[in-house]
């Protein structure tokens, strides 16, 4: 916790980081273990996991694009509110947008690269299939952790907005107080 405090990271960032890190660790451990326990050759692992990884990256691309659209809606709702929000709130939305856009870009690139017919090439040395499996597994685990972090950040942002706009909470930390304007 002391590391986070020295880096000026608030609860919003800390919870998202921990959630994303846990998701990355869990998925990468699972994929690593499946690579060792299954007893399949690397080429067979890639062949069996490729359709699921394609579906995963396709889903992340669609989800992250939807989240970016949702962020526009959040910005519009919060600016139309009678309450004045601090810069902190809009910085949160910016952080979500940056991370989500990064997830989108990495997912699109990985999705396209995975659709190369490498598995059907006979001239590739078998050891490269093992590297390829672990590279794809690592990228998918990192993307999984990043999208989990985006969802956690989005959850906190939406609950903040609901508290202020819907529930009329007047002493929320992201609300601009009238005496702070001066």
Secondary-structure topology with pairs:
Layout: H1 2-6, H2 11-37, H3 42-79, H4 87-114, H5 126-166
Task: Explain how this protein is built.
With 182 residues, the chain is mainly α. Helices cover 76% and strands 0% of the residues. It contains five helices and no strands. It has helices at 2-6, 11-37, 42-79, 87-114, 126-166. Mean pLDDT is 82; it is low at 3-7.
What's the helix-strand series?
HHHHH
Secondary structure: number of strands: 0
Rg, please?
21 Å
Beta strand %: under 5%
Classification by helices and strands: mainly alpha
Poorly predicted sequence stretches spanning 5 or more consecutive residues? 3-7
Q: Quick one: biggest sheet? A: none
Gross geometry: elongated
pLDDT averaged residue by residue? 82
Distance N to C terminus: 34 Å
Helix percentage: over 70%
Total count of helical runs of at least 4 residues: 5
Descriptive tags:
182 residues; mainly alpha; 5 helices; 76% helix; disordered N terminus
Can I get a quick summary?
This protein has 182 residues and is mainly alpha-helical. The protein is 76% helix and 0% strand.
